[in-house]
Write a structure and sequence with these properties.
alpha+beta; five-stranded antiparallel β-sheet; four-stranded antiparallel β-sheet
Length: about 230
């Protein structure tokens, strides 16, 4: 079994901590392995504490009045989410679902606040991460709610390739197995419309497709989206 401290050292929030600080945090953390397609939070749930993605990936989404799902965030390895008394990382009121087998580390709000009380420099990093995550979430929500299926798909693939992309011959292969139905659920579209859009994008060489794989030419996609 891999060392917990190694995992914690990969978390963006903790990547510049001293070994002593890492040991202090490690004392109260818990680990959980969660299977793909498990809903770990609903809008009605209130969960105190911070959660760190050590392996795998999570999807944050909302459901509109017509029952359509809209993805508002994708969290990959090294991401942090949760709510404690002193601040929120912007994940209250949404569904959170694993989109791959996932390994989470959790820490109580009381423990983390005690840790921060003697380390104000870390609190500054927390606030910066909070700001970045909220900005990303709001941007993704706007794009996915207002765009065409093509625009929604391009924006989603661009974000997935940034978080999970492996560069191969000028394209970033999304290292996450996703079916067209799963992608449709992420952008509030049917499987058929996603398949048609993917085929169109592949013909235009904006993406490349394989068996359950999509590779994205990020520069061309950015040009399509942002001009």
């Amino acid at each position: 079994m891999m060392n917990k401290l190694w995992y914690l050292s990969q978390i963006k929030l903790f990547d510049k901590l001293s070994p002593e600080d890492m040991e202090e945090i490690d004392k109260g953390t818990r680990h959980a392995k969660i299977r793909k397609h498990t809903i770990i939070q609903t809008p009605e749930m209130v969960r105190d504490g911070l959660f760190f993605v050590k392996e795998g990936a999570l999807r944050l989404y909302i459901v509109n009045s017509e029952g359509k799902q809209f993805t508002v965030g994708i969290l990959g390895k090294g991401s942090t989410f949760g709510e404690i008394d002193s601040f929120s990382l912007g994940t209250h009121g949404v569904y959170i679902e694993t989109i791959d087998d996932t390994l989470l580390c959790s820490m109580s709000g009381e423990q983390f606040e005690k840790f921060l009380s003697t380390r104000p420099h870390i609190m500054k990093r927390v606030m910066r991460i909070l700001s970045d995550q909220l900005n990303e979430k709001n941007e993704m929500l706007e794009k996915l709610a207002l765009g065409t299926v093509r625009e929604k798909l391009l924006f989603l693939l661009l974000n997935l390739s940034a978080e999970f992309g492996v560069l191969e011959d000028g394209y970033h292969r999304i290292d996450l197995p996703l079916t067209h139905q799963e992608i449709g659920n992420m952008i509030g579209a049917t499987r058929e419309s996603v398949t048609a859009a993917i085929n169109e994008l592949a013909k235009e060489e904006l993406i490349r497709t394989g068996r359950k794989t999509i590779s994205v030419h990020r520069e061309r996609v950015k040009e399509q989206l942002f001009g």
